[in-house]
Every structure is written in structure tokens, then in C-alpha cells.
Write a structure and sequence with these properties.
eight-stranded antiparallel beta barrel, 8 strands, globular
Length: 202
């Protein structure tokens, strides 16, 4: 079986543009058995990732899915002028119960990633009591207009879910500190996009 045929669970991020495609996609995901959770989020791309995704918007639909092949078909059928992202989770680093409800999801990439580095990163993330889930994998993008620059770190993505009752700014600082803790160990974890959950749709 080739890599292309493999299917993963993970996250999908689609721009919410208040047009027919966005609304149709939201309604479809609300009724899809493949979509476990659906959120309306604000997306903030880091300065490092903005040159690759200069078409980013403020508001997105964020969904947790079971099967990436189904989500790929969904995005092909609702392809837009703004980039959509699929984050396939190949390895669940950990999942645990923490206090509070998920209100923030942060996506990172490893600039120089080795398999052993992920175990070290997982151990560092485990020390942060607000992180309830972490996984690693790859990223695929969908857009009607190809990007000028190819994002070179698509195969080394790390996604974390954070549960906290605190404000977006406070949780973002918490995630920034977590990233600095990892980088102090000589591992180059860089923020791709920070997603603040505004509403649970499903």
C-alpha cells in the first residue's frame, strides 16, 4: 500500500468566508459521521509561516475527523481562493484528562526533525498541565490559487490541544512559553498557526 492511499485521523482547517462554499461545507460537516468535533475559530499565523500562507483569513472552521481521505474529497468539492489545511496525525504522542474545556489548539512544525526528537518533545509537553492532547504528523493544503512558496516542513507537524478557562492572550503566552522550553533543549519547534476556539458547533 502506498503512502498516498493511507488514511489518518486528524484536524482540518477551512476558511470561513460567509459564502456558499463555506456554509455548504459547515452544514455537510455538521451532519457527517466522519467529523467528531466542529469548531468556529480565529486563526493567527506566526510571522515565520505568514510568507507561505499570505492568503490567510481571520475565521476558520476547525474539525476533528476520523478519515483523511473523506475530508480531502470534501475540500476538493469546496475548494476556495483561500488555503485550507489538513493536519494528518500519524502518531498520538499522548492524551489525558485535564481541567477545563478545550479552547485553544496550536500547530507547530519541526525545522530539523528526527524521530527521537518527538519523544523528547512529548516528555516536555507532558510537564505542561494544561495540554490535554498532542500528536505529530504531516500537512496537506488545498487552494484554487497555488502559493508562491512551497512550505518546506509539511512532514514534521506537531498539534497540541490546550484546555483552559483563561483568555486567548493568556493561553497563547502559555503556548509560547511551552515552545521556548522545547527550543531551550536544542529542538527547533516553530509556531505555524494558533487557533482560538470561539464556538463549539458539534
Amino acid at each position: 500500500m502506498s503512502e498516498l492511499e493511507l488514511s489518518y485521523s486528524g484536524y482540518v482547517l477551512a476558511p470561513y468566508l460567509h459564502n456558499h462554499d463555506s456554509i455548504d461545507l459547515k452544514d455537510s460537516w455538521m451532519n457527517s459521521e466522519n467529523i467528531k468535533k466542529l469548531f468556529f475559530v480565529t486563526g493567527t499565523f506566526s510571522n515565520e509561516s505568514k510568507p507561505y500562507f499570505s492568503d490567510s483569513v481571520n475565521h476558520y472552521l476547525l474539525a476533528k475527523f476520523k478519515d483523511s481521505s473523506i475530508v480531502s474529497k470534501d475540500l476538493l468539492g469546496h475548494n476556495q481562493d483561500k488555503t485550507s489545511f489538513i493536519f494528518n496525525i500519524k502518531d498520538d504522542l499522548f492524551e489525558r484528562e485535564v481541567n477545563g474545556e478545550t479552547n485553544f489548539i496550536s500547530v507547530y512544525y519541526l525545522e530539523y526533525g528526527e524521530e527521537d526528537d518527538l519523544y523528547e518533545i512529548a516528555n516536555l509537553l507532558l510537564r505542561r498541565d494544561k495540554i490535554e492532547k498532542a500528536g505529530s504528523g504531516n500537512m496537506k493544503t488545498f487552494c484554487l490559487t497555488p502559493s508562491k512558496f512551497t512550505f518546506p516542513y509539511s512532514e514534521d507537524i506537531v498539534v497540541i490541544e490546550v484546555a483552559s478557562e483563561k483568555s486567548y492572550q493568556s493561553v497563547k503566552k502559555y503556548c509560547d512559553q511551552t515552545r521556548r522550553d522545547v527550543n531551550r533543549k536544542g529542538l527547533t519547534l516553530t509556531n505555524l498557526v494558533s487557533l482560538s476556539i470561539l464556538e463549539h458547533l458539534k
